[in-house]
Specification:
DNA polymerase, domain 1; Ferritin; 353 residues; 3 domains; single chain; YojJ-like (1
């Protein structure tokens, strides 16, 4: 399990409507505070003193809230479905670095660092909820705050998605006119990667919102639809070798920081493109993918036969008919589609910026 996925699992466990979140809300209302360790094992036993065992009692919000009235920690399983111990005095390694000041928070952060278990600290004085993991600290936010921030991010994603659609149309125009350079391809893939990155940030909000994030999730799915697939086709069209070393270029770009992602030369090198201002002739996969009911096998045959989009666009019905799997009727359909595409490009104004 990756660190990132582990954090999302923790957010799911404490999302609004979950038993653990209901217990936390009860604890906040009764103003008692709590230290809850999500995970049990020998490592936790090694730093535990006192308290009592519950022999794996079923988790219930009211039960946890009552146990939290005692000073010690409560220890559950990772999914917060079973309570193992209560009123436990935890003694983590005091040499572990912490910037926290409160006793519960200092203990919670050190326990998380030493054992790798997530620790939830409810502060009776601050009326806050803090989640500690082995490498991060996160303060729980109210659903109202989360919804406002999620909606703001959603508006940002809509703007970026609209610009990506404009970039794709521009790339189509340049490909048809055979004046694409690698810089154009890199810029499209950079924007596609940014769109997915904003989507990943929104996923965190959706997970943390639980059931209250369903509407935002539906909008997110709609906005991201086709982004990854289009990026794959663009890369397949312009990679210097085919098949390219990786199918999905966005997986590679996902390893870059946001600062490095904005560096065109770095992106080009990572994707093994040529110099940014060198010509980049399309193989035609993305254009062919727009044609309804054209099987992948036929697309592969067309690209293998003609090799470039320009040769495809220049092919006659007879030449198209010679390709395996095409046939006369489909050859006419292809020629009709190519003619319409060529007619459309004549009305486009090329943006030279």
């Amino acid at each position: 399990m990756t660190v990132e996925r582990s954090r999302l699992d923790i957010l799911r466990a404490i999302a609004p409507g979950t038993p653990l979140r209901n217990a936390i809300e009860l604890i906040l209302r009764q103003e008692t505070g709590a230290l809850i360790v999500l995970g049990y094992g020998r490592d936790i036993e090694a730093i535990s003193s006192g308290g009592f065992h519950l022999d794996g009692a079923d988790f219930h919000p009211a039960r946890l809230a009552e146990l939290a009235k005692m000073d010690g920690a409560v220890i559950t399983d990772e999914a917060a479905e079973v309570i193992y111990r209560a009123n436990v005095h935890l003694i983590p390694d005091p040499s572990l670095e912490t910037n926290e000041t409160g006793t519960r928070h200092r203990t919670g952060e050190r326990v998380a660092k030493e054992t790798g278990k997530a620790v939830v600290v409810v502060s009776e004085d601050r009326q806050t909820v803090t989640v500690y993991t082995s490498d991060s600290t996160y303060q729980l936010r109210s659903p109202t705050t989360l919804l406002a921030q999620a909606n703001q991010n959603l508006l940002t994603l809509e703007r970026f998605r609209g610009r990506l659609a404009d970039e794709e149309e521009r790339l189509t125009q340049l490909e048809v006119d055979d004046i694409v350079v690698y810089r154009d391809v890199v810029q499209f893939l950079q924007r596609a990667a940014l769109v997915l990155r904003i989507g990943e940030d929104l996923e965190h909000y959706i997970v943390e919102l639980g059931g209250e994030g369903e509407l935002i999730n539906l909008q997110l799915v709609d906005l991201l639809a086709g982004t990854g697939e289009t990026a794959e086709l663009v890369y397949a069209d312009h990679a210097r070798t085919y098949p390219p070393g990786t199918k999905n270029p966005l997986d590679l770009l996902g390893t870059l920081t946001t600062e490095h992602l904005s560096d065109e030369s770095r992106v080009a090198a990572l994707l093994d493109f040529g110099p940014l201002d060198n010509p980049a002739r399309s193989r035609g996969y993305r254009i062919l993918d727009r044609i309804p009911r054209l099987p992948d096998a036929v697309q592969d045959s067309l690209v293998a036969h003609f090799e470039t989009l320009q040769d495809l666009l220049d092919a006659s019905v007879g030449e198209l008919d010679q390709v395996d799997g095409v046939g006369r009727a489909r050859a006419r359909q292809l020629r009709h589609y190519f003619d319409r595409l060529l007619d459309t490009t004549r009305s486009w104004a090329i943006d030279e910026e």
